[in-house]
Amino acid sequence: GNSVTQMEGPVTLSEEAFLTINCTYTATGYPSLFWYVQYPGEGLQLLLKATKADDKGSNKGFEATYRKETTSFHLEKGSVQVSDSAVYFCALTRNQAGTALIFGKGTTLSVSS
Amino acid sequence: DTEVTQTPKHLVMGMTNKKSLKCEQHMGHRAMYWYKQKAKKPPELMFVYSYEKLSINESVPSRFSPECPNSSLLNLHLHALQPEDSALYLCASSQEVARQGHQPQHFGDGTRLSIL
């Protein structure tokens, strides 16, 4: 079945630093890819998504491009803020037939001022 | 504010108690999900409902019993839980399951469950 591998943190950055969180996947067919963010004490919020190869998802300064040739969906942000401190999950649909998700292990990002 | 509402936010119960977790959404979504999330781990899928019918049960123990009384509500009935069942229980919804998975899931803030 489909699977996702995500770099494990924690990632510690200073404010305004560049962020990359790596995510690679194994899948049959063409899954949809997502990044979710979880702030302390909260549920998951969709950060961005991409549904086909070469799609770029973007939101709140974060970007990720669906790369079929490298089976990757790396999350990037040019200048992080303290408020970006959270846990980030890469996810993909389990199969083509539905929307059930498989999540990566999560990456904890800590940004200091 | 989240569009998926879960109650209660916190629940402490003994191993012999019976309790229920509730989830409500008014986005017209026809797929609803229960996930279990242990500390510092990703969410793990438990159940999926599509058009009020159970479509996926990830081999969850029978002490967890889901129910979908209508398209807006999803319950999780709990009975005779074990201490290892302590976790954050997340509800999510999305547009119909039958589409090609393009539709993202919207999550509630979860119920933090502690089993004594």
Give the arrangement of secondary structure elements.
The complex is a heterodimer of chains A (113) and B (116).
Chain A: E1 3-6, E2 11-14, E3 19-21, E4 23-26, E5 33-38, E6 44-50, E7 56-59, E8 62-65, E9 75-77, E10 86-93, E11 101-103, E12 107-112
Chain B: E1 4-7, E2 10-13, E3 18-25, E4 31-37, E5 44-50, E6 53-57, E7 64-70, E8 73-79, E9 87-94, E10 106-107, E11 111-115
Parallel strand pairs in B: 2-11
Antiparallel strand pairs in B: 1-3, 3-8, 4-5, 4-9, 5-6, 7-8, 9-10, 9-11
What does this structure look like?
The complex is a heterodimer of chains A (113) and B (116). By secondary structure, chain A is mainly beta. In chain A, a hairpin with a 7-residue loop joins strand 10 (86-93) and strand 11. Chain A has strands at residues 3-6, 11-14, 19-21, 23-26, 33-38, 44-50, 56-59, 62-65, 75-77, 86-93, 101-103, 107-112. In chain A, the strands form three sheets. In chain A, strands 2, 5, 6, 10, 11 and 12 form a six-stranded mixed β-sheet that branches. In chain A, strands 3-9-8-7 form a four-stranded antiparallel β-sheet, with no helix packed on it. In chain A, strands 1-4 form a two-stranded antiparallel ribbon. With 116 residues, chain B is mainly β. In chain B, the strands form two sheets. In chain B, strands 2, 4, 5, 6, 9, 10 and 11 form a seven-stranded mixed β-sheet that branches. In chain B, a hairpin with a 6-residue loop joins strand 4 and strand 5. Chains A and B meet through strand 6 of A and strand 5, strand 9 and strand 10 of B.
